[in-house]
Amino acid sequence: xxxxxxxxxxxxxxxxxxxxxxxxxxxxxxxxxxxxxxxxxxxxxxxxxxxxxxxxxxxxxxxxxxxxxxxxxxxxxxxxxxxxxxxxxxxxxxxxxxxxxxxxxxxxxxxxxxxxxxxxxxxxxxxxxxxxxxxxxxxxxxxxxxxxxxxxxxxxxxxxxxxxxxxxxxxxxxxxxxxxxxxxxxxxxxxxxxxxxxxxxxxxxxxxxxxxxxxxxxxxxxxxxxxxxxxxxxxxxxxxxxxxxxxxxxxxxxxxxxxxxxxxxxxxxxxxxxxxxxxxxxxxxxxxxxxxxx
Amino acid sequence: xxxxxxxxxxxxxxxxxxxxxxxxxxxxxxxxxxxxxxxxxxxxxxxxxxxxxxxxxxxxxxxxxxxxxxxxxxxxxxxxxxxxxxxxxxxxxxxxxxxxxxxxxxxxxxxxxxxxxxxxxxxxxxxxxxxxxxxxxxxxxxxxxxxxxxxxxxxxxxxxxxxxxxxxxxxxxxxxxxxxxxxxxxxxxxxxxxxxxxxxxxxxxxxxxxxxxxxxxxxxxxxxxxxxxxxxxxxxxxxxxxxxxxxxxxxxxxxxxxxxxxxxxxxxxxxxxxxxxxxxxxxxxxxxxxxxxxxxxxxxxxxxxxxxxxxxxxxxxxxxxxxxxxxxxxxxxxxxxxxxxxxxxxxxxxxxxxxxxxxxxxxxxxxxxxxxxxxxxxxxxxxxxxxxxxxxxxxxxxxxxxxxxxxxxxxxxxxxxxxxxxxxxxxxxxxxxxxxxxxxxxxxxxxxxxxxxxxxxxxxxxxxxxxxxxxxxxxxxxxxxxxxxxxxxxxxxxxxxxxxxxxxxxxxxxxxxxxxxx
Lengths: 294, 518
Hints:
The complex is a heterodimer of chains A (294) and B (518). By secondary structure, chain A is an alpha+beta fold. Chain A has helices at residues 2-22, 37-50, 52-55, 80-89, 103-117, 129-137, 162-165, 168-176, 256-259, 262-272, and strands spanning 147-148, 151-152, 201-206, 211-219, 223-228, 233-237, 241-246. The longest helix of chain A has 21 residues, at 2-22. The relative contact order of chain A is 0.14. Chain B has 518 residues and is mainly beta. Chain B is built from 2 helices and 39 strands. In chain B, strand 20 and strand 21 (303-311) form a beta hairpin. Chain B is globular and about 65 Å long. In chain B, 57% of the residues are buried. Chains A and B meet through helix 1, strand 4, strand 5 and strand 6 of A and strand 6, strand 10, strand 11, strand 13 and strand 29 of B.
């Protein structure tokens, strides 16, 4: 009895330490080339020689092997050490055989796959970043609607972490194509009520005849939340409004490849694909600072 | 211009001045004299009284309360957030995350999520003008635009300190954060720019007087994981500190172990210690003195005083003079208190023998979980009562070696000796118990409280019920089953003439209001 009680006590003492130990970047050796542009390029060459037959160009899936890169970050299954192990040792019982390659070459392939799976910040586009920033605030007039580090407008999404959540191709598409939806996993079950990120134009007339124009942040059948062109947040009870009109179109121009010279566009992309933060590896469920706040 | 006209014009101009100055309130003014319709800090206001002047809901109509909306915080776990509400927007925080919702409808307005997602307990955010603040699991402090959630600045904690789950507090234009590692600390950052202003460590360094209170051991522990209070007139912050380490054994750290287990008062401008009052010197039961200090200006024994009230985890209710830390009153607020026979005139506990943790286990009441814990109390200036969630219960503290201070120590509770939770109303100035409300089913911790000018005490229960009690009598006026565990503290606010009460239960935020007030 006494021993079990002491054990119970020990559990209380030890749990904080063990929980901490479980967090971090996952088991196995760390990728020595993470974010290394030359390794990514060499890894791409190696991938194209060794992997495309089964897994398809760009990891999109082939006739034999499954897709190893999906549309968004949440679908990434394997960590870098796991990917390394799969390439080196194969997957028993499947056509995925062990690859006879030096470890450094395997790591380069892993690094290329990591970049494919990552967002823009993992593999930013080349160009003159400083010139791209000048285009952002100058000729591109991006700052009249978008904000970056506290500078700019509020009537379009804040771009401080755009490269941390979007792939480079999706950022390019957003500036050049009318149809530039970002696709997630098909049929994904909604786990949380999402925010609206479409920033649709909205025109509101209050009961006393006042008009407020801006962009829609959210609405339901009874309430409406918007940012006015006055840069203020407005919350309305729909029953108390005389008129609400939402235009189902984005205010975002999609002809930047024509408005800008090729160099300006390239440099703007170099700038935008560097606005963000590399997401750290997924942690345990709790994922926070020390326990013991009791 | 005639004299009469000039006089008239002067009056008009003066009125215009008064009007415009009333309309444009600085971010500091909005926190020092908050609009009664808002809930601007973790404790409701700087004094942490958790008292609201709203009085649409009264003892006469509380029976007409109903749920108005529910907001699910996906990925949360044991939500302990007190929402803050300003101008009809509610902010619900977690580590790495902040949700802004329409406080009238519960509709999401924007969400900030910095990777990785975290479900670790975090207790709230703070606002300053157009900025709200997020603490990250890798100890960054981030300011977001309160209108759209964009990042305004992002700084890593100065000196590599780990910021804990307590809600930040903005005082004197500084964001005040606290933490436990490497030892208890309080830090201030400029609210506009994120610039580090000062750090105060609860652990003294060699050469300091307090260092001598550790018996030669290296000071360790004194974590600070809950928000504090602030007196803008005195320019003083008030925070509680936690246990000295090693936990549950005093071996090797003979002495009072300053500044553990204390209420500390810091100069907000410089972070220097103005005074301290140690509730539990040389603690061996892990009774963190974290319980939020409640600031009250009132006549005490016939003299107007600036008081600080605290119901401490060690079982005593304290009244201090907050200008200098002078002990004025201390009395038990639980019956199960056996470790001390009373307090000296200076407020120091008079220890009862036989309560050192031992290898065979030592029973002590209250237990380590405490007579109360982080769930906040409330002070109501109308009733002059201090309301606290009180737990009657005991625990057993063990060590594994009577000679090795590094050996593990432990804490457990006997399942055959059940706990009982109460909401207790205490006469704030005598410490006498006035009434109590007994919770059905009970465990330690539980939720926090708030009281209002409508004469009601909003009193959630740990096992999911939300009750509204008559603040004068403790009589239950209304209840609602939220269906999950409640260990958060409530807020009340008003939008478009409707008063709401909000409480986080499990992973959901509930808002209640009268059925027919709109």
